[in-house]
Amino acid sequence: MKTKPYQPDHSALGYSVGVTLDRFIKMKQDDFPFASGELSQILRDIALASKIVNREINRAGLSNIGGAFGNTNVQGEEQQKLDVVANIRFSRALTKGGEVCAIVSEEDDEVIDLQNSSGKYVVAMDPLDGSSNIDVNISIGTIFSIYRRVTPVGSPIQPEDIMQPGNKQVAAGYVLYGSSTMLVYTTGKGVNGFTYEQSLGEFFLSHPNICAPKDGKIYSINEGLNSQISEGIKNYITSCKERDFSARYIGSLVADFHRNLLKGGIYIYPSTAKAPEGKLRLLYEANSLAFIAEQAGASASDGRNRILDIQPTSLHQRTPLYIGSTVMVEEAEGHLKEATV
Ligand code: AHM
Ligand code: MG
């Protein structure tokens, strides 16, 4: 039989569609220090769930899936139907994938023990962040962190498997359901972003090796909180205004973070008079984005300490968050310090 080697066609007819998330994960498998296929499977499970959630979000206005679910979650916040849908989808994908032993979710008051004797990983997630934007067609997101359990595989889950500081994450990422849908993740070797191609049902590598600008001119904070925040933050905001920086605040953490990561900027959710620990949760909001920020060359702090070094003490613990371009985070910290001496 006559054969000939494969010759890729580089003409206009044979243009490349790019690198799919699946292929990228496979290519990068050797980067992981541990049994690599398992972590890859979790990332694939998350990607699959995010495609389903993306579909639900896209048609939310046409189906009966908008609005409140009628419950409040453990944080006392009203759950939206889509919060619940997203929680079901991500939990189910992670359960069926078989690599995870426990899930921490913003929507579940307790740790979900999957009773999976072979699962080596713990996932913390906010299945759908930006609740106030869900019903009004504004960008929202999913946030996730992946840890290796520290107790022996097959034994009952222990608090130390769950209460790990952010510096122990083996992977973290987010999905942004925006004007396009993107999945951005890190496994500790840089940050890569993938854009969803709806007609093919695939994420394609669109933002390889994301590097955040060291400095920026965007500040993102809910200025309606002005009467409740410290002098230090007020001074920092004033200094941003004096330099004609742009105020940009969507009120969806993932979207605000993503913009600032690409363009340079800072996102702040400070401690307030009503919420001295801030609003955002350490385990499944701050830690994940802090890991991504640092991997992209940006920074994340609670105003004093590196987010990734905070030892969690409770499941739904909150933390103030200063995240984004390193120069801006350091400046904000400087103002806080100055105001307290
Ligand atoms: P959620 O987890 O209930 O959606 O709350 C988190 C959201 C973030 O996405 C966003 O940055 C912040 O809350 C906005 O809060 P506020 O409306 O107080 O500015
Ligand atoms: Mg949230």
List the helices and strands and how they pair.
Elements: H1 21-27, H2 36-58, E1 68-72, E2 78-80, H3 81-97, E3 100-105, E4 112-113, E5 121-129, E6 140-148, H4 159-162, E7 171-177, E8 181-186, E9 191-197, E10 202-207, E11 218-220, H5 231-242, E12 246-247, H6 253-263, E13 266-269, E14 280-281, H7 282-295, E15 299-301, E16 318-319, E17 321-324, H8 326-340
Helix pairs in contact: 1-2, 2-3, 5-8
The structure holds 2,5-anhydro-1,6-di-O-phosphono-D-mannitol and magnesium ion (MG).
Residues 106, 126, 129, 285 line the site of magnesium ion.
Characterization of this structure:
The strands form four sheets. This protein has an eight-stranded mixed β-sheet with strand order 4-3-5-6-7-8-9-10, with helices on both faces. Strands 12-11-13-17-15 form a five-stranded mixed β-sheet, sandwiched between helices. Helix 2 runs antiparallel to helix 3 and helix 5 packs across helix 8 (326-340). The chain is of the alpha+beta class. The model has no long low-confidence stretch (mean pLDDT 93). The protein is globular, with a radius of gyration of 21 Å. The chain folds into two domains: 21-207, Fructose-1,6-Bisphosphatase, subunit A, domain 1 (Fructose-1,6-Bisphosphatase, Chain A, domain 1); 218-340, D-Maltodextrin-Binding Protein, domain 2. The chain has helices at residues 21-27, 36-58, 81-97, 159-162, 231-242, 253-263, 282-295, 326-340, and strands at 68-72, 78-80, 100-105, 112-113, 121-129, 140-148, 171-177, 181-186, 191-197, 202-207, 218-220, 246-247, 266-269, 280-281, 299-301, 318-319, 321-324. Helix content is 30%, strand content 23%. The chain binds 2,5-anhydro-1,6-di-O-phosphono-D-mannitol and magnesium ion (MG). The site of 2,5-anhydro-1,6-di-O-phosphono-D-mannitol has 13 residues, from strand 5 and helix 6. Magnesium ion binds next to strand 5.
